[in-house]
Amino acid sequence: MNKIIIVMGPPGCGKGTQAKKLSEHFSLPHISTGDLFRDALAHETPIGLKAKSYMEKGEFVPDEVTEALLQSRLEDGDCAKGFILDGFPRTVPEAEFLEGFLDAQNLGIAAVLDYELPDAVVIERIQGRAQHDKEAGKHVREDDLKDDVIKKRIAVYHEETEPVISFYKAKDLVFPIDATHDVETIFQESLKDIN
Ligand code: AMP
User: Fold this and answer.
1) Among 3, 38, 174, 192, which residue's beta carbon has the most beta carbons within 10 A?
2) What is the pLDDT of residues 71-112, one digit of tens each?
3) Backbone angles phi, psi at 181, to 5 degrees
4) CA 89 to chain centre
5) 85 SS3 class
C-alpha cells in the first residue's frame, strides 16, 4: 500500500531526525524541501538562486517556486510507493497544491505528525545545536546562528504554518506528539500513530 506521511512542527522540533528514521523504517524516500533548496543553491540552479534571498532572511520561498521544486521531485520513480514529507506544506496554498497533486493520482495522506514544542525550547535548541556544531568544527546553517532570523522563522511558523495544521485537523489526519521527549520515545510514538 502507498504511504504518504507528513511531519510538521516548529524549527528545531526534531522533525528532520524523525523523518529520516521513518524513511529508513518504511524504506520510503525522505523529501525535505529545505534540503532540496540547499542543494539547488549549492548547484546554483535557477530555483536555488531564486530561493537564496528568502532563505537567508528566514522567510518562505514563494509558493509557486517551492511547488515547482517539489513536484519535480515527487514525479521521480522512487516516490511511487509513498514518501515522508518534511518541511512541506508550510502554507495553506501549498497544502491545497499538494491535495490537488495527490487527488490527480488517486493518492491520500496516511498521517500528519505534529511535533509540538514551546517557542522558548525552540530558540534554546536551535542555538544550542548550532553552537555545539560550530565548536565541533561542523558546518552550521547560517540561518541557525542569527537570533533575529530564528525569531523570524518562529513568527512565520505561527502565522503561516499553524493554519496548515488546522487544515489537516479538519480532515482528521493530525497526530499531536510531544517533541520535548527523547528521539527514541518520539519515534515509537510516531510509529504507533501511523499504525
Ligand atoms: P528548512 O530546512 O526546512 O528549515 O528550510 C530552510 C528554508 O528553505 C526555509 O527557511 C525557507 O526559506 C525554505 N523552505 C523550505 N521549505 C519551504 C516551503 N515548504 N515553503 C517555502 N519555503 C520553504
Assistant:
1) 174
2) 999 999 999 999 999 999 999 999 999 999 999 988 999 999
3) -75, 175
4) 8
5) strand
Q: Verify whether ligand 1 is closer than 6 Å to residue 34 (CB atom).
A: yes
Distance CA 147, CA 124 (A): 10
Select from 77, 108, 90 the least CA-distant residue to 158. 90
Ligand 1 centroid–CA 178 distance in Å is 22
Q: Looking at residue 30, what DSSP letter applies?
A: E
Cell numbers standing for residue 171? 480532515
Task: Provide the whole-model pTM.
Answer: 0.92
Q: Which atom of ligand 1 is nearest to the CA of 156?
A: 10
Helices (H) and strands (E) in the chain, counts: 9, 5
Evaluate whether 15 touches 8 at the Cβ level (below 8 Å): yes
Q: Give the tens place of pLDDT for each residue, 176-185.
A: 999 999 999 9
Cell numbers describing residue 104? 490527480
Region for 182 from its dihedrals, namely left if φ exceeds 0, alpha if ψ lies in -120 to 50, beta otherwise: beta
**Which residue owns the Cα nearest ligand 1 atom 11?**
60
**19, burial (CB in 10 Å: exposed 0-12, middle 13-18, buried 19+):** buried
| Ligand 1 center to 62 CA (angstroms) | 10
